[in-house]
Write a structure and sequence with these properties.
The chain is of the alpha+beta class and 222 residues long. It contains five helices and ten strands.
Amino acid sequence: MSSTVTKWAILFGLASLFVQGLRWLDAVKDRWYILDPVFLNQLAQDSIAASPNSTSGMIDHIIANLTSTYSPQQIQFNTDTSEWVFNNAGGAMGAMYIIHASITEYLIVFGTPLGTEGHSGTYPGDNYFNILVGEQWAFYPGELEKRVYRPGMVNHLPRGKNIQYKMHKGCFALEYQRGWIPPMLPFGFGDTFTSTLDFGALWRTVKWTAREMAGNLLIGKL
């Protein structure tokens, strides 16, 4: 009997330490943020103004501005704009280009010329969806009217919240996520195993994400 009590006491103690560790990590994650949501929204607006009729021109403007604003010793960006990959998550499908991926932040361009809709997912961090081209609709449970986001606007999805969203034909956005990124990855990978079986896209996503995270870790960027 005493051995059973001791075993449960040890398990309870380990579980308590684990929970306390998670709370500590959550409390200190802000110290590793480098990108700023307000700056990124202004950058999205500037890119629209600079290339109003060219999505690729907007992306080039964003990359040029990021690499000139931030030192490569501070944060690493992927400047290869040919690295696009399909992404299926929450029932929605589009393509993404990973600009930055680290342990606490990611920045991508996501969109589709065809249109899509689905579930946003529930993230342990804040998501900022800056519309570059097209239009996004969204709503929270209980809302009877849609929210509409047009070029230059940002759809901020707070931590722990979720929405249904729809991206109309030709909609592309600069998406910024902050928080502990690894726990969010299963949402982006799950559809591969349950429906699409697109393991080629999964492999490229994992390879490029791991490469970018490793590059940032090497300069001390979590």
